[in-house]
UniProtKB/TrEMBL annotation:
Enzyme Commission (EC) number: 4.1.1.23
Keywords: Decarboxylase, Lyase, Pyrimidine biosynthesis
NCBIfam families for the chain: PRK00230.1, pyrF
Gene this chain is encoded by: pyrF
Residues annotated as the enzyme's active site: D63, K65, D68
Family: Belongs to the OMP decarboxylase family. Type 1 subfamily.
Pathway of action: Pyrimidine metabolism; UMP biosynthesis via de novo pathway; UMP from orotate: step 2/2
Binding site for substrate: 14, 36, 63-72, 123, 184, 193, 213-214
Protein name (record): Orotidine 5'-phosphate decarboxylase
Protein's UniProt keywords contain Lyase: yes
Domain Orotidine 5'-phosphate decarboxylase, residue spans: 8-229
Amino acid sequence: MQSSIDPKIIVALDFPSQDPALALVDRLDPSKCRLKVGKELFTRSGPQLVQTLQRKGFDVFLDLKFHDIPNTTSAAVAAAADLGVWMVNVHASGGEKMMVACRERLETFGAEKPLLIAVTVLTSMGAEDLAGIGITDSPEIQVSRLATLTRNCGLDGVVCSAQEAPKLKAEQGADFKLVTPGIRPLTADKGDQQRIMTPTDALKAGSDYLVIGRPITQAPDPLAALEDIHSEVMGL
Ligand SMILES: O=c1ccn([C@@H]2O[C@H](COP(=O)(O)O)[C@@H](O)[C@H]2O)c(=O)[nH]1
């Protein structure tokens, strides 16, 4: 489900429990950001927390990166749609049959269906990491390959790094959504991310949505960090 306003910043609520997550959320404005619930918080606090966030007016990206056989994965995305989330994702490396099964299952939800996107190459991975799993192409080539597969399966877009955004927008078209983690303001720690970009550069490169976690959640003043990023990218 899509809000009438379209905030570009998605705050990754990577917290160990719902109390610190809600302490931050209660200071946030749904007109300025969306929220991402990932594996840690969902495993702790589950669907109830997602419903709480939605009742507070936020669009929720349920980032569970499903990767399983088509029957299991399509049932999982349907469960996410039942929850009313705005966006849900699977791994593109789950392959064509799995992605098509997910897309077809979500079509039964009509206008209420969440955006379905596929993870290409994790932003924490570089060329050496890909070689370690037997992929000798560069991240850029592997991301393009998986993005093409994803688009051919009829999904709404991909998770990629902003570094790949110009190539993907040219190859896949303007409507194919690019959701980009690995966003780092100039002064922020890189942490475990490898393929990174600043918020401004990412939007200029063609990112549709910026997924930002630690630069906001671990900042001494998370609200100020979000406001800084928001005013930096406003109008882009
Ligand atoms: O390729 C990917 C896919 C998902 N993520 C998720 O995004 C956030 C990024 O958090 P930061 O603290 O800003 O690094 C996190 O929840 C990841 O699970 C990603 O980083 N890369």
